[in-house]
Amino acid sequence: MAALSIGYQIHFHFNPPNLPPLPTKFSSLSFTAKHPLRCHHIGCPKIYAPPAVSVMAFGSSREVLPPALDSSSEPPVIFDGTPKLYISYSCPYAQRTWIARNYKGLQEKIKLVPIDLKNRPDWYKEKVYPANKVPSLEHNNEVKGESMDLIRYIDSNFEGPSLFPDDPSKREFAEEMFSHFDSFYKAVISSFKEDTVNDGITAFDSIETALSKFVDGPFFLGTFSLVDIAYAPFIERFQPFLLDVKNFDITTGRTKLAAWIEEMNQIEAYTVTKRDPKELLESYKKRFLSQV
């Protein structure tokens, strides 16, 4: 059986009408192709006509998510050789690492271990990660933390498509965007607490400008990367809160940001990690409006 492995977005065009429609992002699919498979991407049109094709693309997770472990739960076996990613389903920092894991197709390589942060088990701090935060990653008999470090680590130390470009100018800009995140976050949070959203307007204007840097795609570095992963979980939460509470639509007048959000919502590695917007909104209302 021939196999075509791809790590970038490809549009597939099938001649026979009886083949099932395919999503733009999927992890694996096997089917028999009796007609040529046309694969188009910039500068490289090709035709593949194998008798059977197993298409492997990255960016999907179809796993059954395990329940969150709480104070009554037994701990998993620590340092048994299986990499484990400890997360919370509701934590945006943990969501970063979850997206990176999914996009690289590591669902069977890195075990997901969700923790109930409201009733977290004692063994997590005592046996796994003394900082008692998520995310953390157990790998090679060590446990590492901090989401920004972990998405880099997962990208560098596991198989799958690279999430960091070789282009020096893009790598430099990526580092700028990593550094910019804290000021972006603080500005948006400030707008939650003030009568005006001036800080939020400035913050999202900076994102619109950043998304205009490269024209070879809708993402921060043109193609999907660690930068998109770093920002997506937070914009996912900021957008419904600002719209509902401040009547501020972050996409108004920001066509690049609107396109980015639309494209992000086509990446299943991300969408399977998303929370219900109503749930996020209520959570943020409890968290921030009580402080006003």
UniProtKB/TrEMBL annotation:
Catalytically driven reaction(s): RX + glutathione = an S-substituted glutathione + a halide anion + H(+)
One Gene Ontology term from the biological process aspect of the record: response to toxic substance
Record keywords, A-Z: Detoxification
InterPro entries membership: Glutathione-S-Trfase_C_sf, Glutathione_S-Trfase, Glutathione_S-Trfase_N, GSTL1/2/3, Thioredoxin-like_sf
Record EC number: 2.5.1.18
Domain of life from the UniProt record: Eukaryota
Ranges for domain GST N-terminal: 81-162
UniProt GO molecular function: glutathione transferase activity
CDD domains for the chain: GST_C_Lambda (cd03203)
Similarity comment text for this entry: Belongs to the GST superfamily. Lambda family.
Cross-referenced PANTHER family: GLUTATHIONE S-TRANSFERASE L1 (PTHR44328), GLUTATHIONE S-TRANSFERASE L2, CHLOROPLASTIC (PTHR44328:SF11)
Identification of the protein by name: glutathione transferase
